[in-house]
Design goal:
The chain has 490 residues and is of the alpha/beta class. Helices cover 28% and strands 27% of the residues. Strands 2-9-1-10-11-12 form a 6-stranded parallel β-sheet, with helices on both faces. Strands 15-13-16-18-26-25 form a 6-stranded mixed β-sheet. Helix 1 packs across helix 13 (464-475).
């Protein structure tokens, strides 16, 4: 597929990882969706933050977010290849939303030609169903050591022949050099399609950049489409690189929620809906836990390995010392760790073995098959717990992504999860839990009540996608961007 097969598309590339490509794509999806039917696309994503589609397919959470911003249902075609690192240079390969194999980098790239066919088919499907496709690259576009096997940057560029917008991050310095250097290192057939540049994450007065912007435009012959200010919006993070940006408290209430930063943490986006309300503190295993108002053990790509690290580091003992003193919540792999035992038939570990858990929940988990459950669910809150009592009987939604089966005699959400006798320890397989306004309100209200603070009913329900779109319309030359895609603006 080449050229006019996808007539209305744009490819957003970056000078490096974490420059803000995903956010730019998200904003463009929202802006274009006001007039057109829009789909996001990322050929290959490497992330432990994922999402489950309505038909049970697993994709990177960034593409799900971008689809939501566009007002369309996320599908596997939007992210046909997802790599989920497992450690030891091995990743689980998710192909069109389903587990394909565990592969090392070398063996994966040996079969890269086969993957091109999957990408072409996904793009063809999207091209038939949508009027506009906003595509995203990965990492830095000019990784010259990867050119022969780069399917997400050069591969997408060559399959589609789409116009390219290049994004650079000024926050870490050297933005002019990184933009210029990336353009110069791109192969000629790709370089000629770069139609614009965006300088992202600027703090200060953009007029001080004007001289540099003008010189960059002169030596490249490519326009700078705008300078985006640094901003914090309530949009879920794409991958674990973003945890480093969460060092300072940002909640409106003085409440300390400690999230254990497991070595193989996954889907930490579960807790981002809480960040504007309370202070979420990611705690490494070798750090002090302190006396938080609540503790959360998150999901993980490998429950057994992270459980062993939790025990060996002494963090498990610190969590156990808070039993019945503060709420302790485990999600997915964190839920499994809270139980009495995990029996593994060499699915997660290297040999058949039984592992002792933290023993805070009366559950037993068994890994006996290389089979992953991926499904969206709707459940009712049906067990007593001090921090969920106020919404007992109400409905919540979420999604499951896990291996292993867990037996529970005290499920908390429908037939899912478990709550201990005190009600202070809760485990669940449901990701996206705090995206439910009723769960969020019940949990935060309980924590605030213990501190004598009244909850604000408004709960900061602004639309972050619209906020981002408005910001981009203010600081970017949207007229030129529409022109680049050959779209009518009005």
């Amino acid at each position: 597929m080449k050229g006019d097969d996808i007539s209305k598309s744009v490819l957003v590339l970056g000078t490096a990882s974490h420059v803000g490509k995903s956010a730019i794509v998200t904003g463009l999806c929202r802006i274009f969706s006001r007039k057109y039917r829009v789909a996001p696309f990322k050929a290959q994503n490497m992330s432990l933050n994922s999402w489950i589609t309505t038909d049970g397919k697993e994709i990177g959470i960034a593409q799900a977010i971008q689809a939501m911003a566009a007002g369309v249902e996320p599908t596997a075609e939007m992210n046909p290849v997802l790599l989920k690192p497992k450690g030891d240079r091995v990743s689980q390969v998710i192909l069109m939303g389903k587990p394909y194999a565990d592969k090392s980098a070398g063996s994966y790239y040996d079969s890269i030609e086969e993957t091109h066919g999957v990408l072409r088919q996904a793009l063809e499907t999207l091209g038939n169903d949508y009027e506009v496709i906003v595509m995203e690259g990965a990492g830095g576009a000019a990784e010259i050591n990867l050119y022969e096997r780069d399917i997400v940057n050069l591969g997408t560029a060559r399959i589609t022949n789409a116009p390219i917008i290049l994004v650079g991050d000024i926050e870490r310095g050297g933005v002019f050099a990184s933009l210029y250097g990336t353009i110069q290192l791109l192969p000629e057939d790709v370089r000629q399609n770069v139609r614009g540049m965006i300088i992202n994450k600027f703090r200060g007065d953009p007029t001080i950049l004007q001289a540099g912007v003008e010189e960059l435009e002169q030596i490249t012959g490519i326009p700078v489409l705008g300078v985006m200010p640094y901003s914090k919006l309530g949009i879920p993070s794409e991958d674990s690189v973003s945890i480093g940006d969460k060092s300072s408290p940002s909640g409106m209430y003085d409440v300390d929620v400690a999230v254990i930063r497991l070595p193989r943490i996954s889907n930490f986006t579960d807790f981002e809906p809480l960040e504007r309300l309370v202070n979420i503190r990611y705690v490494d295993l070798d750090e002090k836990l302190g006396t938080p108002d609540a503790v959360i053990i998150p999901g993980t790509k490998n429950t057994i390995s992270d459980l062993q690290d939790l025990l060996d580091s002494g963090m498990a003992e610190k969590i156990q010392s808070l039993y019945r003193k503060v709420p302790i919540l485990g999600i997915c792999g964190g839920y499994q760790m809270l139980g009495k035992q995990i029996e593994d038939a060499a699915i997660e570990g290297e040999a058949d073995a039984t592992y002792e858990g933290l023993g805070l929940l009366d559950i037993h988990t068994i890994f006996d098959a290389y089979k992953k459950k991926t499904v969206q669910v709707t459940k009712k809150v049906n067990r007593a717990s001090p921090f969920f009592d106020s919404i007992k009987g109400e409905t919540i939604a979420g999604y499951e992504i896990h291996m292993g089966d867990t037996g529970s005699t005290a499920p908390v959400f429908g037939d899912d999860g478990c709550v201990d006798e005190s009600g202070m320890v809760v485990g669940t397989y449901l990701h996206g839990l705090f995206s439910n306004a009723n769960i969020r309100k019940a949990f935060v209200s309980y924590l605030l009540e213990k501190k004598g603070i009244e909850y604000n009913e408004e709960d900061l329900e602004d639309d972050p996608y619209e906020e981002l779109a408005q910001l981009m319309e203010e600081f970017l030359d949207m007229e030129t961007i529409y022109s680049i895609l050959g779209l009518e603006r009005n």
